[in-house]
Amino acid sequence: MVARKAPEPVPAAWNDTRVADWVRGAVHYQFAAQAQLTPHAVAVRSVGGETLTYRQLDEHANRLAHHLIEDGVGPEDLVAVLQEKTPDLIVSILAVLKAGAAYLPLHHGYPGQRTEAILARAGARVLLADRAMAAQGLPRAVPSIVVDDCPRILRHATTEPEIPVHPAQLAYVMFTSGSTGEPKGVAIAHGEITEFAYDRMFDPARHTSVLMAAPYAFDGSTYELWVPLLHGGQVVLPPPGKVDVQVYARVIAEEGITGVLLTAGLFRVIAEEAPECFARVQEVMTGGDVISPTAVERIQRACPDTVVRATYGPTETTLFATQATLPRDVSFDAGGVPMGRGLDNTRLHVLDDKLNPVGIGEEGSLYIAGAGLARGYLGRSELTAERFLANPFDGPGERMYATGDRVRWNEDGLLEFIGRSDDQVKIRGYRIEPREVEHVLAEAGGLAQVSVVARPGAQPGDEKSLAAYVVAEGELDMQALKEQAAARLPEYMVPAAYVLLEALPLTDNGKVDYRALPPPEAHSDPLGRGPRTPREEVLCQLFAEVLSMESVSIDDSFFEKGGHSLLATRLASRVRTVLGLDLPIRYLLEAPTVAGIVELLDADGESESGLGPVLTLRGAGRKAPVFCFHPGGGLAWCYSALLTHIPRGHPVFGVQAQGLDGAEELPRTLEEMAQTYAKRVRELHPSGPYALVGWSFGGLVAQAVAVQLQQDGHDVALLALLDAGREDTTVNRSPGQRELLAQVFEGIDAFAGEPGEGELPLSRVREILAEEGSVLAGLDEDTITHLITITANNLKLGDESVQQRFHGDLLFFEPEGDATESRRPRDFWTAWITGEIDGRTVPFTHRELLTPQALEVIGPVVAQSLKELT
Predict the structure, then answer these.
(1) What is the rounded CA–CA span in Å between residue 645 and residue 850?
(2) Average pLDDT over the chain, rounded to whole?
(3) pTM for this model (two decimals)
(4) For residue 489, which of 84, 218, 493, 764 is within the disulfide window of CB 3.0 to 4.6 Å?
């Protein structure tokens, strides 16, 4: 037996972060010193609103501090803050510190019960609110001061209160999710904030203008407030109201932001939507969850002068404990984006189960010691002792915090994240204890068992979401259970899916077998209408994509299926990219279903029946337009799934058959049809270059239109055909109604299998379409009749037509298995294409070539060909 080689020990230098001249003063002392240096510099600026200089902020805060002291607020008292993001908020927070007290930030999105519970546990002395919050109703648990509607404050002096404050004194308490069914308050001292704000990772020149993107009730605000304010920079507050990704991107790009901290989820969405917005930003930091390497690369590519920094740290370590400047042109696929190395005076210990250090590359639990460590959990001495342990490595009296994160050192001296040793999760940057959610659901009653777990997204890097698995004691009111969760929990902690089971699966030792829990989609409501138009079909695809689901109906609520504000912004971005439509977030709030959104779009003049001569799949864009030509059935709806693969900027149209209204004469030859369609193309876009796509009979049409456009002097830059040729058009010169229906409604075999002989009643045809879940189930009987006639004519034209030569290249996709030693489907085109034929074989049948699965293979090839045109 070969002995296992001992791991290489971690060099002591990797953990030597000592800095002798670190700053441990009280926060407001350091601010007052800065105000003396730069009294006229702008300290706080609200986009489109009020600004405060350092002197004004100092004096306003002094007045409010004197008012608090007069009302009996003293050292270590907790003062709650519940306000909008305005300069008054910054005044209130600073005033609390000047009064010797500690601030307790509250999130305005918390349900009332949670806010009341936090105030009661914290024992807050008073609540500082503003008129906006007062109008919504304030908690009754503590007396309130409405800071922008209290004339008494203005009577106080603007001089600094003479309240001595030690660096070890409490500065703030932030509440996070707790495993015992209630949130827990993390207590942070002044010295921890100033140590953090003066860390060497913060070059003041890079953080002169910092956007306050995080909710101030979460630890990201520690950077956004104190790094700029203690260095002479300015805090930039976003505009009032709902702030989505587009607003953030615009503010970052236009307001001179130099430093910004974003959760990994928001970082990813902005990277997808507007990576160029960081062009003038000196440094963008991200963390709070697994960071998308693709998002990092997009921003680095779009903004080569911007530093991207990965950060990591729980609330118990003030904010960051590690950081890493991410190099360019480096793939992070193997170990993911690294967590980095420790901040100044922060020590990182990776230990085994017996608290012994592990070597390089060995997995262990992360313990953090040194600067930034919280005092503990407010009023929870037992929990504090459980997580803040005696530190045997760094000297007498030192403590270390047990993070619960499993990590390893890599060869470069950087930490890499592996996973959790418990079930704590991060959702959209927020730390969540699933046990707290379980407690809340159990208190609703009616449950024998409940288990809440985080489910991964459909794609790597997608946001996780919570799923609640419940076992009922009897009859269960699922809606009441959901309402209980919404009333007691913050929005980001409310489960996105609820699954009712007969029993929770168990392991051999009687614990919940989390691996055996079924995916929520397997228990989703099968009811709900399918899409009725191409636009609805695309919207359903985008809903499913953003929600990480296989499919959704047009009646599924975005928010009940797990949507939230960040995903809503991402959905709006995808709709803009794919359909070229602006989807206001208010549409999702007013009518959060595909059916509801389409109704609102129709009311705004964006109606699309899907039965016109041209189907506008995406109308906006200045790049080469893409025209997709109908197959034998006459409708171009089948191309809707291709739309998600066409790069942004390319308008996309489906060209549909003449005669859908029953009034137009049908073309007598393929050449006549091509002339009509070429005219439609030029009416929409008078000049090329054009990209033409055709499947089956539509391929014959696309090639004929390409010839016609060339003869008219226009450039066809891309011709892409999907299994098209003479053999694909017909084998029966006189097909009956049932055979024609199978051609009209590709993929539905039920017409041939219907009992009886002869023609099917059109009412039964509609029933079959509905039973099969066809997107065409809403067609009326007249339209079905016209489609049967059109299909019969198209089969005849395909049988009789003679192609002409197209002078250019061909991109051709053929099904796997159709080729023989003597013939391949693409060979038909060698006589009619003068350029190269780029043949691609795909593992799908003829019928499957426009399914989402096949287009995952075909779509990127077409997209790459389009990119090469620009």
Answers:
(1) 12
(2) 86
(3) 0.68
(4) 493
